[in-house]
Design goal:
Layout: H1 3-11, H2 19-37, H3 44-56, E1 65-68, E2 71-74, H4 81-90
Helix pairs in contact: 1-3, 2-3
Length: about 100
């Protein structure tokens, strides 16, 4: 299954109306993965997890807390603990 198809399945998106947004998110997450881990190849499972979280934050970037009628939502500026741990496990040390 292509990575965009996996992402669409996880996000429960049907059709191709959001494909350009999903492709852009995947490309951004691939670049971020390579930057953070100092690897030369991409781990597609981690990039997909990063992409799901980034997609779910669209339109709410930078929001720390929302409170409507007793319902509170808080957004973090980075990825969840699970995704951060996966990234950390793939990070190579660079010596100068």
């Amino acid at each position: 299954m292509a990575q965009i198809d996996t992402l669409k399945t996880l996000l429960q998106i049907e059709g191709s109306a959001r494909d350009s947004v999903l492709e852009a998110i995947l490309e951004q997450c691939k670049a971020e993965y390579l930057l953070r881990t100092h690897q030369s190849t991409v781990d597609n499972d981690i990039v997909t997890a990063m992409s799901v979280e980034r997609y779910n934050k669209l339109g709410n970037e930078g929001v720390q807390s929302l409170n409507y009628s007793g319902i509170q939502e808080t957004y973090f500026s980075d990825y969840s603990a699970g995704v951060t741990a996966m990234l950390r496990s793939k990070t190579r040390m660079i010596t100068l």
